[in-house]
Amino acid sequence: MRGRFSFRPHERIRCSADFQRVKKAGKRAKIPHFGLNFIPNGLAYHRLGLIVQKRFWPAVRRNRIKRVTREWFRLNKGRIPQPGKDIVVIARPGAEKLSPGDLLREFSTVFHKQEK
Predict the structure, then answer these.
(1) What are 40's strand-pairing partners?
(2) Separation of alpha carbons 112 and 18, rounded Å
(3) Residue 86: what pLDDT?
(4) What is the dihedral of CA 66, 92, 30, 7, to 10 degrees?
(5) Where are the alpha helices (DSSP H) in 26-99?
(6) Average pLDDT, 10 consecutive residues per value, the chain (116 residues)
(7) DSSP codes of every residue in 79-114
(8) Other Cβ atoms closer than 10 A to 39
(9) Which fold has domain 2-115?
(10) How far, in Å, CA of 93 to CA of 77, rounded?
(11) Which of 45, 46, 68, 65 has its CA nearest to residue 57?
(12) How far apart are CA 57 and CA 52, in angstroms?
């Protein structure tokens, strides 16, 4: 059961080329506090990449945004429709004030539209 709800190293987007590929060729969605780019990745699992810019927040707030977003992904990656996707989340001002429940509501609007 542990593997189902964990955030494994292979589920992270780290390579700059992968970020650029998702940005250039992927679909875009704008929600109030985030921009989302996503594209099928040809894998059996989803991967997450985060962009939280230094110019908007001090380190404590940036880290909180990343922590809460990773937690959303960890708990909800099974609900995102297949095939596997590379998802890049870009935080916008106001994101630091969101609770985990607010984050869930914002992201689920994007991924529930997609499965229809």
Answers:
(1) 85
(2) 24
(3) 95
(4) 0
(5) 59-76
(6) 72 93 92 93 93 93 93 88 92 90 86 56
(7) GSPSSPEEEEEEE-TTGGG--HHHHHHHHHHHHHHH
(8) 17
(9) Ribosomal Protein S5; domain 2 (3.30.230)
(10) 25
(11) 65
(12) 8
Q: What residues does 27 pair with on adjacent strands? A: 38
Report domain extents, the chain.
Answer: 2-115
Residues 112, 116: Cα–Cα separation, whole Å: 7
Task: Name residue, tokens 């869930």.
Answer: 104
Pair of tokens at residue 11: 């589920």
pLDDT of residue 1: 45
Distance CA 61, CA 98 (A): 11
Q: Rounded to whole angstroms, how far apart are CA atoms 109 and 15? A: 28
Residue written as token pair 């704008």: 30
The one-letter amino acid at 109:
T
Residue 64, both tokens: 């909180």
Angle at 35 between CA 97 and CA 71, to 5 degrees: 55
Residues in contact with 42: Cβ distance below 8 Å, sequence separation at least 6, in sequence order: 83, 84
Nearest to 69 by CA among 31, 116, 18: 31
